[in-house]
Each structure stands twice: as C-alpha cells, then as structure tokens.
Amino acid sequence: MSQSSLSEATARMQVHSAASRFSLVYQPVISIAAGKRSVVAFESLLRINGLGAGEGTVQFITKAESDGSIVAVDRWVLSQVIALTRARPRLSVWLNTSQLSIAHPTFVTDALAAMKAGQVVGQVSFEMTETADADEKILAKRLEDMKVQALTVMLDDVTDGFAKRGLLLSESVAGCKLSRQTTVALLESERVRAEVQQLVKVCRRLGKRIVLEGIETTDELRLAMDLDITLCQGYYFCKPASPANLLQYPQMRPVG
C-alpha cells in the first residue's frame, strides 16, 4: 500500500471511530419566483455533537482539510445522505463537499458508484465549498467528469475564501451560492451590490442558478427580490434541523 493510500485508510478509520460525534441537519432552499414559495432542495450541514453550529464545527472542518481527513468526512456525509434519500424519493439534497474531495483521485468515482447502488442519482447534488484551496485545473477536470455523469455541482460561497469563481463560466457548474457574509455586505456596500448585480447578470445569461443564503429579515428577503435572485435560504424561512423535525415538508416524509 502506498503512503497516500495508507494515510487515507488511517483517516477513514479515525473518522469511522469519531462518527458517533457527527450528525447532519438540513435546511431548505426556497424558490420565491412569481411571488410563490416552494422548496427546491435541502442543504445538508455537518454538525459535531457538543460543538453546535458555531466556531467549533468550523474549526473541525478547517483541521480536517489541513490534515486531509476531510475526504473521509465527506464520504461519511455522502453515505448518510444516500441512506436518507433512498427512503424519500421526492427529496433532493445539496451536499457540501470540500474542494479537496472533488480533486481527490477516487472520490467522484466512488461517490457516483455509491449513488448508483443506492438508486439516488439525480437526488443528490454537490456544493463545492471554498474553505480549502485545491488545484483549479484538477477541479475543472473532475467537474467535467461529473457533468458527463449528470452530477450537478454548485459553487458554494462564491465571493468568499478560496472560491473558484472562474469555474462558474464552465458548463460543468450549475450555479453558485452567496453566503450570509455577502448578504450582510449587500446591505452595507454599494460596491458589493454592484458586483453581485453583475454576477446575477452573468448567471442569467448562462442559464445558471444563484442562491442568496443567510436571509434572516424581511429587508434581506426584499434585497433578494430587488436583485432578481429567486432562490433563497436562511433562518427567515427555516433553521437547519434534523429530518424528524422537518416533516412539515412533504419531501422529508419517508415513503413506505
């Protein structure tokens, strides 16, 4: 076994032993098109039990990206999402996935095989996160492979961190998301607003989706409407919760 394979095997064992500390919560992505609200998907969000949704979880993910164990974490998350969606054929989940996992030599191939085995291809999409910095050429190749296999990829937090904004022009990417940080900045900065208006125009021209995250107030919702952003997410609509606490949404109700 090569050193890299050995390191990944070790990481998988560490994640497996720590998995009892992990849980997933889900938050709906809401369409506000034509003045009507409807759920188009749910984003899965990793939680480390005992740490909550704040800096503790962020620090865990940062450490996992720095030591390479994030690939094993993302594999675990995918396995949980597949198990959830198998029993809920109306459910669509957007899965946060590190750039390091997308760039990994076997992650995409293994993910596709697992989704095919679970018969959930088409129900699971990927949000490529911006908190790590992977090689853009390798990412572009992996994204092309995912496009060929009809796997949908969104760019997460496209104005933050190590977001590969240039990849948004690729036919392999379905769209992008703007973070809570950007939502706040939009209310405070004309420069940010002008940049986002231009981004919206590009997405519209290319037929790509754009989601405004972190909406918590009526003013922020009005901002999305003013910018002609019709996909939204945030506490204003629903806080992240376990599937058992989201049964008001028909997509979350198991079938059979």
TrEMBL record:
Residues 1-254 form the EAL domain. SMART domains: EAL. It holds the Pfam family EAL. PROSITE patterns: EAL. It comes from the Bacteria. SUPFAM superfamilies: EAL domain-like. PANTHER family: CYCLIC DI-GMP PHOSPHODIESTERASE PDEF, SIGNALING PROTEIN YKOW. This is EAL domain-containing protein.
